[in-house]
Amino acid sequence: DIFIDSLHSLNPSLDGLYVGPSGIAPKNIHIRRLKVDGGNRNGFSITNGDDVTIDYAEVCNSGVGINGAAPRDGFDIEPNLTTDKIRVSIGKLVTYSNAGSGGAVICQITGAEPFLVHGPVTIGEFVSHDNTLAGIKTHKVKDFSILSGDIYNNGGDGVLINRDLRRLRINNCKIYNNGGRGINGALNQQDFASSDFNFDGCVIYNNSQTTPNNSDGIRLDSDSASFVLSRVVGQDLKLFDDQASKTQRYGWSSGSDVKGVDFRGYFPVNATGRHLSTAALSYVEQSRASITTTVTPGAVAAGSYQNCTISMPGLTNSWRVESV
Question: Does the pTM of the predicted model rise above 0.85?
Fold first, then answer.
């Protein structure tokens, strides 16, 4: 049982705060306010912790300079052993100007499902901006939630989802002006199938700043037909690009090994039907899959699809777009 009212760490030689290591998990740790500036490795790391609560955390400038040590992330929630416990709740987390990603909730242990980070890991409000790589990265995790936030101006993807996730929630977030994809769910090197992603209330726009018209607002894919990504939902989702010179290629695109997607929200389409096309239409442009809609595939009319449903039931790769 540990309570810290306020902790400010400036230019530590490794991490500003470290909760661990492996063995008997530290339990019932409550930090009211944490700020780490200039951690040589990460801002803070949690490798083994049972009931760790941080009300407010701010991390910046991690790993900056020629002597910075990898991974140089704002924070790193990552067990080292399968026996380590990870139960973490953060009220508000602000992370910026780090040499790596804004933060990571990951597990590097290879193997089957029991080697996941078993959460829950919950961040109530997440603000991540101006980091060199992704706003946040995550893989091999079960029960990870971001309930609100702003993820913007990061050099890489806004949210990087590498592989092996179950019950992922990215809700009520504005994700914009990132160098790569808004949400990159192109899964690879998987040990098992991922499922149950929820993007309710997200507003994703003006991404792909590094290479215009190359990356999408949301990309869903799996590199293996043996590990199909399934059950992805997004209610009140907004996907658009309102720049004079548009950069975000599609609002949403998908590979073939994805099933059970249901997105509902606002999906404007520009005059060419490319930059801001709905997920269904972007997939049609790439593969000419079947589609039922009020417009002709490949010749999309300009305008706004208000209160639309986009879904891909089953494994047929057949998209459905209809007003609701």
Answer: yes
- Residue with the larger pLDDT of the pair 112 and 202: 202
Q: How far apart are CA 94 and CA 102, in angstroms?
A: 9
CB 52 within 8 A of CB 27: no
- Counted residue by residue, the chain has a size of 324
CA 309 from chain centre, in angstroms, equals: 22
- Per the DSSP assignment, residues forming a β-bridge with 97 are none
Is residue 57 within 8 Å of residue 21, measured between CB atoms?
A: no
Alpha-carbon distance values, 267 to 176, 204, 238, 319 (Å): 15, 10, 6, 15
Closest CA to 222 of 163, 281, 174: 163
Q: Which residues of 84-122 are buried (b: 16+ CB within 10 A; e: fewer)?
A: bbbbbbbebbbbbbbbbbbbbbbbebeeeeebbbbbbbb
Range with top average pLDDT, 67-71, 147-151, 256-260, 306-310: 147-151
